[in-house]
Amino acid sequence: MKIVRLVAPVLAFVAFAFPASRALEKQPASDYHARRVALGNALHGGVAILFAAEEPVLDFDPYRQNSDFYYLTGWNEPGAALLIMGPANEPERPGQAAHSRNYKEILFLPTRNLRMEVYTGAKMDAATPGVTKATGVDNVERGDDAAYAGDIAALVGMSEVLGEVLTRRALERIGDPSSIRAYGKAALIGMNGDLEHGAALIHPRLGMAMRATLRRGKVLIPGNAKVGVAGAPIDLVFGPLDEAWDLDAADTLTVSVPDAPRPGEVLLLVGYTTGARPNARSKGPSQADVDALIASFD
């Protein structure tokens, strides 16, 4: 089972597993929905992401859905992903309005391949009429497009949700977002994944969700991704939030979680700092200095 475990700046993360009793016996849609809602309530405002089993390597091997994915969805096709957002109620804090979020679930389905359906039979995607009723999931969205393959696009879409959730978790500890001076993001991909899974999570949309939640952030957010075994270290690189040449805010935090990521997991990190690195005293150029240097090239 592929799970994205969420790690806030203080390394609070969510992991989960549900039993897969009678996993491949089709049950009423209401049963699957009740299981998803129960999982959402158990997340305490967190987010869970699961992926369907991949196609078998050999054509003559039968396809068998991931038991946990089937237990929560009853969906027996490859290429899908499920996102569950737990309900949350957050009080007003300095610089941040009160925020509440209802339970939400999204099933991401791959776009139909009409040529392949000659051999596989007709499939459903997010554009199929009646797909919401057929799947029993509240929201069904497109899970890939011409720019992405397989589960990559689903990860890109999920990163928007994760950026908001993790930033709000950080603000629970930091308080006033105006005190934040630097930010960073990183992803460590388990050995069954590839580097682009991490890139899909941290590069296209995660940063925009972080900024939208903070209502700040003019400068590019440093991002770092790599593939590694459980317990492998990864550097969370911090860069200045609004002043690009605030070099005292530049820093690095090495993070290692002993049991993450497992081979089918991704460890996602979002971090913020409220001050300079310890004993910072290495002054650099100002924006005016850089502009003057660039102008001198003409």
Structure overview:
With 298 residues, the chain is an alpha/beta fold. It has a single domain (3-293), classed as BB2672 (60s Ribosomal Protein L30, Chain: A). It contains 8 helices and 12 strands. The strands form 3 sheets. Strands 1, 8, 9, 10, 11 and 12 form a 6-stranded mixed sheet that branches. A 4-stranded mixed sheet has the order 2-3-6-7, with helices on both faces. Helix 5 crosses helix 6 (195-202) and helix 5 (152-174) packs parallel to helix 7 (206-214). The longest helix has 23 residues, at 152-174. It is elongated, with a radius of gyration of 21 Å.
How is this structure best summarized?
This protein has 298 residues and is of the alpha/beta class. It has one domain (3-293): BB2672 (60s Ribosomal Protein L30, Chain: A, 2-Layer Sandwich).
Chart the SSEs and their pairings.
Elements: E1 3-7, H1 29-42, E2 47-51, H2 67-73, E3 81-85, E4 88-90, E5 99-101, E6 104-109, H3 117-120, H4 131-135, E7 139-142, H5 152-174, E8 182-189, H6 195-202, H7 206-214, E9 223-227, E10 234-240, E11 251-255, E12 265-273, H8 287-295
Question: How many β-strands, per DSSP?
Answer: 12
CA-based shape:
elongated
CATH class: Alpha Beta
Overall pLDDT confidence: 84
Task: Name the structural class.
Answer: alpha/beta
Which descriptors apply to this entry?
298 residues; alpha/beta; 60s Ribosomal Protein L30, Chain: A; six-stranded mixed β-sheet; 8 helices; 12 strands; disordered N terminus
